[in-house]
Amino acid sequence: MPEFDPKTPAASHVQLSVVMNPEHANIHGNVHGGIVMKLVDEAGAISAMRHARAQVVTVVVDSMTFMEPIYVGNLVTLDAEVTWCGRTSMETRVTVTAEDPITGSRTHTNTAYLVYVALDGERRPQEVPPLQLTTPEEIARSNEAKKRQLHRKHQRESERL
Q1: Would 103 be classed as within a structural domain?
Q2: In 63-148, where do the E strands start and end?
Q3: Is 1 part of a structural domain of the chain?
């Protein structure tokens, strides 16, 4: 079993910013939810790769609630970091903010949690470094992540029945 130095959530932090263009819109002029979901997955995966220093695959995307619309012309910023680690898997938290670059008005539109598994060169699961929690906020987020992971495990088991 490999030995890893623990890594903080900050070490995995990723921030992506993308201007939403007409090709990202639906017929209502809002950005397609699928575009946002793709960006969320990309930000989460980069964060997980930074933590594991390995390729990753998406295992779970928890439900995603679109609290506010994102419009063409908005600057969408995604912040992602690892919130929990198992032996080979990691949960990332991704927050999405839309900004009107003219007025500077910013709106939190989504928060999503995704689980990734790290892969070795043979595309098999590989162990990941433990998460080093240093602040009360990081500890609280990790405790909530553990609850979500337990819920996911119970859900998988009930689906097998």
Answers
A1: yes
A2: 75-85, 89-99, 106-119
A3: no
CATH of the domain at 73: 3.10.129.10
54 within 8 A of 60, measured Cβ to Cβ = no
Range of the domain at 48: 9-160
Cα within 13 Å of Cα(73), Cβ side: 7
- Please list the pLDDT of the chain residue by residue as tens digits (161 residues): 456 899 999 999 999 999 999 999 998 889 999 999 999 999 999 999 999 999 999 999 987 889 999 999 999 999 999 999 999 999 999 999 999 999 999 999 999 999 999 999 999 999 999 999 999 999 999 999 999 999 998 888 888 77
Query: What is the pTM for the complete model shown?
Result: 0.92
Domain count, the chain: 1
